[in-house]
Amino acid sequence: MGRYLGAALTGAVGFVNQHHDELTRVRRDLHAHPELGFEEHRTAALVAERLRQWGIEVHTGVGRTGVVGVVRGCAQTSGRSVGLRADMDALPIGEENEFGHRSTRSGLMHACGHDGHTTMLLGAAQYLAATRHFDGTVYLIFQPGEEGYAGAREMIGDGLFERFPADEVYALHNWPGLPAGHIGLNPGPMMAAADRVEIVVRGKGGHGAHPHLTVDPVLVAGHVIAAAQSIVARNVAPLEAAVVSLCAVQAGNLNAFSVVPREARISGTVRAFQHSVQSQIEARLKELVESTARAFGATADVRYQRMYPATINHRPQYEFAAGVAEQLVGQDQVVRNMPPSMGAEDFSFMLQARPGCYARLGQGGGEGCWLHSTRYDFNDAVIPLGAGYLAALAERRLPLATGA
Q1: Would you say residue 250 has pLDDT above 70?
Q2: So what's the pLDDT on residue 1?
Q3: Could you give the 3-state DSSP secondary structure of residue 312?
């Protein structure tokens, strides 16, 4: 197994690099045994076992299947604390890779690198527990259910920040669009808010040979889908980013080719960075759907669900995190104004509760290696850098007094 040589092998990065082979085995074991949100029982047990081996205080069942490790520094005079978060869950995707550590569970795989995130936080935990060269407390937050289950919100609702009162929180997500060894972040939005849209169009069914006796919900659904694309183009200010994607339609029976159904269902998503833009799109979409249906003699209902808020970094924590990254890999490998993604991330809930920063770790990779791909696999070469970066964030945010 290769060693990572993209940063100075000193401090936390150097320590983790000494355990690179072991951590790679852990990562590949996690990849081979993926678990969906709130089903991460094996993963949580592995995490808890490793933390206990290193003398770390462990709390399980936080937010159902979450794990929190508590590492206290060799000094406690500052009274300050930092939270480091990694997500643990996999996706309901069938893996098409053929390597030895491919998923052993049909229809499930780690297609987003959460196996790597968990492993990197374990590497940081091992270093912090071995050295404890900081003044304060580090909370290691192993979160369940990021992929659509709002596991961060579940942990917060279970008293995460009351029981483990981190002053700040940090997270690191792998990013295949960056070269391996690069770190990207920005001082504002990193990920968009994710809203779910469900539309039900109700008409009058009948025979396709006599359409004048029906109110065709399929026709209405087609007009709704086309008209919805005007919302961003003609309602949202050009300098505001937003996406309306109606991604699925269900109506009738493909074998009943001459039957006009009574109902059509549409589902999709809305993405935006500003709360005001979300509200604008929600209101306009409801007006458009209802009026379009009415024009054809049908009725329609819209269910608009706000799932994840936008992931927005806090400026002071961004400046700090970017500075630590530059110290590790150099200015030329840190992207300080990385363009945000229209994807979503439930670390956003934690950033609403505590100041913090979300960064991306370059993964590299060629065709087929993008997130949520059936052929995705985490790049084990970056484990030492990712783990070292997380540990350095905590260690440098909680510095020991000079001479300590």
Answers
A1: yes
A2: 37
A3: strand
